[in-house]
């Protein structure tokens, strides 16, 4: 297509940093954001580590009790209908707008859209429903619904910024924000929108993270330094995390006319489902391999042209093995050997926001010319044979980059990013 999309703005509230500079340093130095936690005041719980958000206190159901960095000035009207992760999201959007040289007034012309991904706030939903039952339905918070259900980010951000273009939310578990990015690219390519804000956010609390323990998906390793170890033989589950990331995607000619710096071109995407199991990836990685092939075809790129793969690998035994086999099928068997790493060894796994977060990491890697290493990788799984898995950060430009995501039901989504010409 003649219209191309580029990344012009990034904003971060993550376990490894709450702005671009801190996140970039963490990726360079492999500085993790995992900490010991005690959920529900219960020291007997097996899950003891999470990717925490620093400098924010959002453990109360009342926005009046929240604490956040003084650099953000948020009116009461915006706060009163937000969930905790909505606060993270607004802060990430504010960063991204400043990074892209955009003012709030630039978002209201209909040419700017918003796509979001989150699971909603189970924390607030539980609080509001418990109150409803306690008073037998006679009273309730009028903002309870819009502050807690799965579309809460779209509702709040679109209203707060006066966005009149395309607005929607995506629910595909851990591939949600990757779907949002792909559909945002299509809207720009088709001329429907000039720019898109893509936002993913999740909370770090018992209600969001602990349900995965019942699925035996979470690590029970109590050591923050080794609990998240993608591709390693000793991995035993993922480490839950949260935060928010905003990525601004813009039609390339529009961005150049504005004279704004460009991180990378979003060159293509692909998706394919496993059709195999409600919760477990296809054991051979069949769906992910097909999604990778479709993304490469959409971007007009051959496997040998990919220099770096940001893997979805969450540190679960089955998921990492499936992805390793998919990468082997697409790359190793065709003689291609891109560098492969999973940044979740640093961040933990922030569920639906992981796709946009790692796409933003790819944009940083392209702009700054480095490849993040695999934190905590000691002994790679035998399924990784033939893959290039750097242990430390590589001080070299990654070239063309592939970003992978996978979610429940075998939903696989992949993005391709390219360096842009000066």
Structure characterization notes:
With 422 residues, the protein is of the alpha/beta class. It has a single domain (5-418), classed as Peroxisomal Thiolase, Chain A, domain 1 (3-Layer(aba) Sandwich). Helix content is 30%, strand content 18%. The chain has a ten-stranded mixed beta sheet, sandwiched between helices. It has a two-stranded antiparallel sheet with strand order 2-3. A hairpin with a 3-residue loop joins strand 11 (400-407) and strand 12 (411-418). Helix 3 (84-100) packs across helix 5 (152-161) and helix 9 (286-299) packs across helix 10. The longest helix has 17 residues, at 84-100. The two termini are 21 Å apart. The model has no long low-confidence stretch (mean pLDDT 96).
Record keyword descriptors for this entry.
single chain; 422 residues; alpha/beta; Peroxisomal Thiolase, Chain A, domain 1; 10-stranded mixed beta sheet; two-stranded antiparallel ribbon; 12 strands; 30% helix; globular
């Amino acid at each position: 297509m003649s219209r191309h999309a580029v990344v012009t703005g990034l904003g971060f509230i993550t376990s490894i940093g709450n702005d671009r500079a801190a996140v970039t340093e963490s990726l360079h130095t492999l500085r993790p954001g995992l900490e010991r936690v005690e959920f529900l005041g219960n020291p007997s719980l097996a899950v003891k580590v999470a990717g925490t958000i620093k400098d924010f206190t959002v453990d109360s159901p009342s926005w009046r009790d929240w604490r956040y960095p003084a650099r953000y000035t948020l009116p009461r009207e915006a706060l009163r209908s937000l969930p905790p992760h909505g606060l993270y999201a607004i802060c990430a959007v504010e960063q991204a707008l400043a990074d892209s040289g955009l003012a709030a007034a630039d978002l209201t012309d209909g040419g700017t859209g918003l796509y979001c991904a989150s699971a909603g706030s189970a924390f607030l939903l539980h609080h509001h429903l418990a109150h409803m039952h306690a008073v037998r339905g006679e009273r309730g918070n009028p903002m309870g619904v819009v502050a807690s259900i799965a579309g809460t980010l779209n509702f709040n951000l679109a209203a707060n910024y006066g966005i009149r273009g395309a607005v929607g939310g995506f629910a595909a578990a851990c591939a949600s924000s990757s779907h949002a990015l792909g559909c945002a690219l299509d809207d720009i390519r088709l001329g429907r929108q000039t720019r898109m804000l893509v936002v993913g956010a999740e909370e770090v609390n018992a209600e969001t993270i602990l349900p995965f323990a019942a699925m035996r998906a979470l690590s029970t390793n109590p050591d923050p330094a080794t609990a998240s170890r993608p591709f390693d033989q000793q991995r035993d589950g993922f480490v839950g995390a949260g935060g928010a990331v905003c990525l601004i995607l813009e039609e390339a000619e529009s961005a150049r006319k504005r004279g704004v710096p460009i991180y990378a071109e979003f060159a293509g995407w692909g998706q394919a489902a496993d059709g195999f199991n409600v919760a477990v990836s296809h054991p051979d990685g069949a769906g992910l391999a097909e999604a990778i092939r479709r993304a490469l075809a959409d971007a007009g790129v051959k496997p040998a042209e990919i220099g770096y793969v940001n893997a979805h690998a969450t540190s679960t035994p089955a998921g990492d093995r499936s992805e390793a086999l998919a990468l082997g099928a697409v790359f190793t068997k065709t003689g291609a050997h891109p560098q492969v790493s999973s940044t979740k060894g640093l961040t933990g796994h922030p569920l639906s926001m992981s796709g946009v977060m790692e796409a933003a990491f790819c944009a940083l890697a392209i702009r700054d010319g480095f490849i993040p290493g695999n934190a905590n990788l000691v002994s790679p799984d035998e399924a990784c044979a033939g893959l290039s898995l750097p242990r430390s950060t590589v001080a070299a430009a990654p070239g063309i980059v592939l970003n992978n995501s996978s979610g429940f039901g075998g939903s696989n989504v992949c993005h391709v990013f390219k360096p842009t010409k000066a």
